[in-house]
Amino acid sequence: MKHIIPAVSGGVRMGEGHCTLPHQLGAELDGFAPWCVSAFAQRTGCEIIEGQFLTLERDAALPQEGYRLTVTQEGISVAAATERGVIWALTTAAELAEDGVLPCCTIKDAPKYPHRGVLMDCARHFFPASEVKKVIEESALAKLNVFHWHLVDDQGWRIESKKFPLLQETSGDYYTQEEIADVCAYAQERGVEVVPEIDMPGHVTSLLAAYPQYSCSGKKVHVAKGGGIFPIILCPGQDATFTFLEELLDELLPLFPGPRVHLGGDEAPKNEWKKCPHCRARMEQVGLDSYEALQGWFTGKVNDILKKHGKTAICWNESLRGGACPKDVQIEYWTLQHRDTMQPFAEQGGKWIYADMFECYLDYPYSMTPVKKLYDTVPHFGDQDVSEMDSLLGMEGCLWSEHITECGRVEELLFPRIYALAELCWSGKGDYEDFCQRLTATMSGANHSQIKYTLSDWWDPQGQERQKEAFGYLASIHSNMSDDVMEQTVEATDPGPEFGKAFMTKFFQPEDMSILMKGMGM
Ligand code: ACM
Ligand code: ZN
Q1: Is the pLDDT score of 481 beyond 80?
Q2: Which of 73, 227, 310, 488 could be joined to 402 by an S-S link, Cβ 3.0–4.6 Å?
């Protein structure tokens, strides 16, 4: 049988003969929503009509998202507890089909983690909705179930607001509300939850370029260019900031049908807050002893707006610093230097997602994060393997776009690396050589023909070619960042003395050090 990725976790039994899909495929849905067979129809070219070739059966005893798939010469039957289980069964069926013919088999399958995500940054550089859908389809084929859509940042506001149109007018490219609805429906048919990220209180230069009155100083700023951390952020001292955010979120949150919203909270420099009388007065009013706590308090206020809409917040781990962040937000852990706040949160049962930048950031080239390194990733606190911790929801691969302008480059960076993450999150790590063989076969299959994925000779680059790409990448990041943004970036990320060393040793090798130092003029 054709091997699929992620590997089946619960067993495959081969049967005799084949099943040929009819052009008009009769389906009996047993109360499952009709959209859960739509992607299968699109992928195989079948037209779904009423009938009994494909029969669905609700089995509440199966795990969430798990399924039993039975293919016989007479047809296909699927048992699942949820719509998503049906979708993953039919995703497997579509992957197994070659020219409309499937091998007879019985498959039992279910994922290890409930959160299997990919982040795409459409704010730093804008990518059209057609590309977003392509990434969603290709991720869904790997049974990834979260599309973390990074929609606003210093360099652009990409969500159409009818109430506050200056947001998108000041930034340029954006998704219309109709496009957002279309992307969300497309994702739902594929079992994918769209988690929009509306980053705050930092990474908001584009918002403040349109509405400067919500920063501490109220001074005019321009939409940012290039990468780095920018100093002007939202002012939590002024009530008007929250009135504005509530009106804005009341309009925007209903565009996204999923249960969760990412509120960012990363890299929020506090320089402006430290100079602001409103922020000082707020801290006295609510009894806070640090500016980091003020960020936690801010998160709590916005979390209340989300709750009104029935949504759960996800925040980057910096939000935990200062100790005032609500305990019911979920945390995405990307900066291992902040383990001191992350680990207690996770150990006390706070839900969290592993997205360590050293292992899971996919804007870094393959020379820095090769496929094998990603495949070897084990969620950890220091030396402690925490991959089986109850509070761990799963993992995410993150593609930031400060330095990515082309759709083709997005695809090369995501694919096939995201398949390594998908397998870790679904069936768990297997033998790497075996994985690579399956990956080569999977990516060259007809279902993936529209994707510009990286070919196997560059999955694990070696030698001088690796050094050339990695150093070239680092040099281009540094040359694109102005000195003041660089200073802000170092201050706001609070890297500490160990960070530089960790960065070098996580991404480079001992033989790289001398040439790397020379390249940086040291
Ligand atoms: C991040 O990379 N700033 C979450
Ligand atoms: Zn302020």
Answers
A1: no
A2: 227
Give whole-number Cα distances, 435 to 8, 106, 143, in Å. Answer: 12, 22, 16
What tokens does 256 get? Answer: 């996204």
Choose which residue among 229, 267, 342, 485 to substitute to test ligand 1 binding: the one with the highest number of ligand atoms within 8 A of its C-beta. Answer: 267
Q: How far is the CA of 155 from the centre of ligand 1 (A)?
A: 14
What is the whole-number distance in angstroms between the Cα of residue 334 and the centre of ligand 1? 7
Instruction: Give the atom of ligand 1 at the shortest distance from the alpha carbon of 203.
Output: 3
* Burial environment of residue 40 by CB neighbours within 10 A (0 to 12, 13 to 18, 19 or more): buried
The Cα–Cα gap between 405 and 413 comes to 12
Asked if residue 501 has pLDDT above 90, the reply is no
- What pTM does this model have? 0.96
Distance from C-alpha of 434 to C-alpha of 153, rounded to nearest angstrom:
40
Q: Could you give the angle at which helices 129-141 and 407-414 cross, rounded to 10 degrees?
A: 20
Between CA 76 and CA 49 the distance in angstroms is 14
- Residue 103, helix vs strand vs coil: strand
Ligand with minimal distance to 275 CA: 2
Element (H, E) at 353: strand 352-354
Average pLDDT of the chain is 95
373 Cβ neighbours under 8 A, 6+ residues apart: 359
Mean pLDDT of 395-403: 97
CA distances from 270 to 235, 276, 292 (A): 10, 10, 8
Q: Which amino acid is at 382?
A: G
pLDDT tens for 57-109 read 999 999 999 999 999 999 999 999 999 999 999 999 999 999 999 999 999 99
With the most atoms of ligand 1 within 8 angstroms of its CB, the residue from 362, 400, 403, 477 to mutate is 400
Joined together, the tokens standing for residue 473 give: 């990448």
Lowest pLDDT segment from 329-338, 349-358, 476-485: 476-485
Beta strands 54-58 and 24-28 are parallel
CB-CB neighbours of 262 under 10 Å: 23
Q: Which atom of ligand 1 is nearest to the CA of 334?
A: 4
Q: What is the pLDDT of residue 521?
A: 58
- The phi, psi pair for 230, rounded to 5°, reads -110, 145
Distance of CA 272 to the CA centre of its chain: 30
Ligand 1 neighbours, Cβ below 6 Å, are 266-267, 316, 334
Residue-wise DSSP of 143-201:
T--EEEEE-EETTEE-B--SSSTHHHHHH---B-HHHHHHHHHHHHHTT-EEEEE---S
